C-alpha cells in the first residue's frame, strides 16, 4: 500500500476539489492511503464535512507583484508563480520550509498535484509527481521558458529573476537546483483535464488532453420550448449583484443559484418566472431544461455546456475564465457579457439575443456532436493508470 498526497496549492472555489475527489476515491479503492491537501479549507468546509480522511492545509503565499499594477496584466505562468511566492527569496524560503516539513512528516510515495508550483519545486528530483490540471494551470514545459497564454502581452516578471530565486532557495535548503524555470514541472505524469477547445496552449500542447474528471455530458437535442436560462454565479464577485438585478428585470423564465447568497438577496430577486435556488442543482437536469447557461467561465461548467450543446453567456472574473470565455465565443457557442452590460438595463437584451440566436444554438449542437464522436474519455481511469505506473517505476502512459 502506497501513501499518496493529492491536492492543490493555488485556486479558489470548489472546482479543484471536485476534480480531485474522484481520483482520491479511485486510489483508495485500490488500497492506497491518501492524504488530501488544499489551500482554501474554509471555502470548502461544507464539502469536506462529508469526508472522513486526512486533510492538510498548505502555505498560502499569494501576494501582489511589487511595483506591478493591480490587477497585473499577467502573460505567462512565471507571472502567476511570481504572485504565488516565487518573486522574493524570503517568501519562497518560508513556503519551502513548510512544504519540506510536510513532505518529511508524510513521506509520500507519490504526489498528485493540481496547480501547485511550490510543492513541485520541493518535490524536484526528490519525490515522484503527477500533475492533473486544466490547460491554463499546466502550461507546456518542454522549453526553457513558459509560453505566453495571451498574445500581445509582455511578461510582467523576468523569468531569469524567478529562476535565480528558485536556485538560491534550493541551494539554501540543500536541494537540487533547476536549470530552467520549467524543469520542476516536467513531472513523471502530466494530464490535462479539459476539452482541447478550452486549452489556451492547444497549438503547442504535447501532453495528453484527456477531458474533465467530472465527465462529459451526452449531447442534448436542441431546446425547442420556451426560452429558459440557468445562472450559476458567485456573490463574492462585484459583477454579480448588478447582474442579478438584470435577471430580475428580465421577463424570461429562468433559475439562479448564487454561491454565498443571503436571505436578503434571495428575497429581492423574487419575481414571477424566476426560481431562486439556495443549493447547487444537478447539472444534467439543469442542462436538459435550459436553453441558455450563464456562468463565470469555470472550466467544469464550460465543458458541461459545450458537451451538452447549450449556448452560454459568460461573466469571467479572472484571467483563466476569460480565456475559456474567449474560446467559447470564438467557437460561436456563447456570448461574453461585458461589465457595462451587467445592469438592470443591460442584461435583458443580451438574454433575449442569445436565447433567440438560432445560429448559435445550431453551432452549440454541432460541436457537442463532434465532442461525443471522439468516444469515451475514461479520464479518472487514465489518471489512475498513470499513478499506478509511476508507483511501479514504469513509464507513464
Shape, principal axes of CA atoms: globular
How much is the average pLDDT?
Answer: 93
Strands ordered across the widest β-sheet = 3-2-1-4-5-6
**Number of helices in the DSSP assignment:** 14
Number of strands: 12
Our measurement of the CA-to-CA distance between the termini, rounded to an integer number of angstroms, reads 21 Å
Fraction of residues in helices? 25-40%
Task: Give a quick account of the main beta sheet: strands, pairing sense, barrel closure.
Answer: 6 strands, parallel
Which ranges are low-confidence, i.e. pLDDT below 50, for 5 or more consecutive residues? none
Question: Nearest-angstrom radius of gyration?
Answer: 22 Å
- How do the helices and strands follow one another from N- to C-terminus? EHEHEHHEHEHEEHEHEHEHEHEHHH
Assess the beta-strand content as a share of residues. Answer: 5-15%
Structural class: alpha/beta
Would you spell out the secondary-structure blueprint of this structure?
Layout: E1 3-8, H1 15-29, E2 33-38, H2 45-48, E3 55-57, H3 77-86, H4 89-106, E4 110-114, H5 117-123, E5 129-133, H6 159-172, E6 189-192, E7 228-234, H7 240-249, E8 253-259, H8 263-269, E9 274-277, H9 283-289, E10 292-295, H10 299-308, E11 312-314, H11 319-330, E12 334-336, H12 347-355, H13 358-373, H14 379-391
Parallel strand pairs: 1-2, 1-4, 2-3, 4-5, 5-6, 7-8, 7-10, 8-9, 10-11, 11-12
Amino acid at each position: 500500500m502506497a501513501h499518496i498526497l493529492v491536492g492543490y496549492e493555488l485556486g479558489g472555489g470548489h472546482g479543484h476539489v471536485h476534480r480531485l475527489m474522484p481520483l482520491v476515491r479511485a486510489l483508495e479503492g485500490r488500497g492506497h492511503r491518501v492524504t488530501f491537501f488544499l489551500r482554501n479549507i474554509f471555502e470548502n468546509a461544507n464539502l469536506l464535512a462529508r469526508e472522513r480522511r486526512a486533510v492538510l492545509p498548505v502555505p498560502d503565499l499569494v501576494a501582489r507583484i511589487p511595483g506591478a499594477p493591480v490587477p497585473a496584466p499577467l502573460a505567462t505562468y512565471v507571472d502567476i508563480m511570481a504572485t504565488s511566492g516565487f518573486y522574493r527569496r524570503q517568501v519562497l524560503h518560508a513556503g519551502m520550509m513548510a512544504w519540506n516539513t510536510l513532505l518529511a512528516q508524510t513521506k509520500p510515495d507519490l504526489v498528485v498535484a493540481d496547480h501547485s508550483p511550490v510543492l513541485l519545486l520541493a518535490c524536484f528530483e526528490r519525490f515522484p509527481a503527477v500533475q492533473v490540471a486544466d490547460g491554463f494551470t499546466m502550461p507546456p514545459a518542454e522549453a526553457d521558458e513558459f509560453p505566453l497564454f495571451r498574445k500581445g502581452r509582455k511578461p510582467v516578471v523576468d523569468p531569469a529573476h524567478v529562476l535565480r530565486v528558485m536556485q538560491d532557495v534550493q541551494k539554501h535548503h540543500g536541494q537540487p537546483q533547476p536549470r530552467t524555470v520549467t524543469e520542476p514541472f516536467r513531472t513523471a505524469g502530466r494530464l490535462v483535464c479539459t476539452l482541447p477547445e478550452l486549452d489556451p496552449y492547444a497549438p503547442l500542447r504535447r501532453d495528453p488532453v484527456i477531458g474533465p474528471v467530472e465527465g462529459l455530458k451526452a449531447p442534448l437535442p436542441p431546446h425547442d420550448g420556451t426560452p429558459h436560462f440557468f445562472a450559476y454565479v458567485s456573490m463574492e464577485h462585484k459583477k454579480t449583484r448588478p447582474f442579478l438585478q438584470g435577471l430580475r428585470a428580465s421577463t424570461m423564465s429562468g433559475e439562479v443559484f448564487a454561491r454565498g447568497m443571503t436571505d436578503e438577496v434571495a428575497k429581492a430577486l423574487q419575481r414571477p418566472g424566476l426560481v431562486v435556488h439556495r443549493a447547487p442543482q444537478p447539472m444534467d437536469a439543469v442542462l436538459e431544461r435550459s436553453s441558455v447557461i450563464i456562468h463565470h467561465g469555470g472550466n467544469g461548467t464550460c465543458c458541461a455546456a459545450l458537451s451538452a450543446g447549450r449556448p452560454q453567456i459568460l461573466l469571467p472574473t479572472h484571467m483563466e475564465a476569460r480565456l475559456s470565455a474567449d474560446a467559447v465565443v470564438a467557437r460561436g457557442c456563447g456570448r461574453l457579457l461585458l461589465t457595462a452590460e451587467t445592469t438592470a438595463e443591460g442584461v435583458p437584451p443580451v438574454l433575449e439575443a442569445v436565447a433567440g440566436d438560432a445560429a448559435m444554438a445550431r453551432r452549440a449542437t454541432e460541436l457537442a456532436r463532434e465532442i461525443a464522436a471522439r468516444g469515451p474519455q475514461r479520464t479518472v481511469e487514465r489518471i489512475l493508470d498513470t499513478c499506478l505506473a509511476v508507483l511501479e517505476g514504469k513509464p507513464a502512459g
